Amino acid sequence: MANYILSNNNRYYAALESAYGVVPAIAASNRVPGMRLAIATQKVIEKRRDKTGTRTFLGSASVPRKVTGYEFETSLMAQDMGTLPPAVGQMVQAALGGPAQHTQAQPATVSGGGFQVDFTVPHGMSEGNAVNMGGELRFVESVPNLTSVRVCAPFTNTTGAAVVFPAVAYAPAKSLPSVSLFDYWDPNSTVQRVVRGAGVDEMEIQLDGTEHRIIFRGPAAQQIDSVSFQSEPGTLAMFPQEPVVEMETPVPVPGHLGQVWIGNSQSQMLTLTKAQIRVKNNLQTRNFEFGSEYPLALSPGEREVDVQFEAYSTDQSVFAELYQAAQTETPIPLTIQLGDQPGAMAAIHLKSFVPQVPHFDDGETRLLWSFASSRAQGTGDDEIYIAFG
Fold first, then answer.
1. Closest CA to 75 of 183, 217, 204, 242
2. Which of 49, 93, 122, 339 is paired with 385 by a 20 to 30 Å CA distance?
3. Which of 137, 218, 196 shows the shortest CA–CA distance to 385?
4. Cα angle at 136 between 132 and 137, to 5 degrees?
5. Phi then psi for 234, rounded to 5 degrees?
């Protein structure tokens, strides 16, 4: 007897495409832990204007255009050391554009109040690369010389001789790659799906004290399914088979673990309650051109990066600096680290943003400051960096 399909009996995979809409081969390493994948395909039905002699709808063109969109939600998961970049990194790359920049394991020395990292050999790093050390993840702010870097916030757990662990960082770029998303279900007779030509128009990173969530949404070229699949020129000859399923038991990183550094004086804020960092690419697709049923390419517009957050106010100096920056339109940096264990950390760095004047909420026993959406800025594809380590 047929039974319901349980919604936890599915697996997600993501892979960068070599060209827009070209579905790549996937392996078990492409599997992405996910919470939800929503795919919507809408047919564009044009109104008939010919005289039919009746008030009854007689149908429309047999091959209507289709508009596809998706929303994929996941959370930061702990992973084994050495498995960088994580599979979700391909979605982050699709949102920012820049390729993964790896930092290798090597000895180092920390000095200068935790801001200076010196290596024994040339490090080959540049601004925005990640440094993973002692359960803390930082970004390179400047490069004084070939064997030293200065980071965006101080290392607090490490001084003197230390070891830098592997990390991977992503930076913005002018163009954006596309990805294919795969949705496989049990049993095999269930409809399996692939979304090709998926672009990330919006990426939201949400922190609320329970877990660290990442949401991707945007347009796609086409939704392909295993039931109505037909081979088409330039796409797939057959519906792609799922790789050999491997048992996966990732553990979500608790949302209350991490660090927040803010302000030009680089003070640590300890009372953050929630935050949201959003990247919007203002994507357009070549979707309504003559001669094609599906979109042909992605066209990104002006990038928008903004942050909003809430924190309980204290007499800590960082709050005075925050309020002063908001009133005087002074740009300040922000670094947020998610998690505190190697292999289970991510970090976001905004090098410059002007905070909104905070809203004071005194309805609780503690004064809560709420900062509305504040837009980040930069000098050229450098307003945000994201890293895993």
1. 204
2. 122
3. 137
4. 50
5. 85, 0
Summarised one tens digit per residue, pLDDT across range 265-279 is: 889 999 999 999 999
Tens digits of residue pLDDT in 125-158: 999 999 999 999 999 999 999 999 999 999 999 8
Classify strands 267-268 and 258-262 as parallel, antiparallel or unpaired. Answer: antiparallel
Give the separation between CA 354 and CA 81, rounded to whole angstroms.
36
CA distance 386 to 291: 39
Residues 276-289: tens digit of each pLDDT:
999 999 999 988 77
- The pTM of the whole model exceeds 0.70: yes
Measured distance CA(268)–CA(321) in Å, rounded:
12
Per-residue pLDDT band at 160 (split at 50, 70, 90): very high
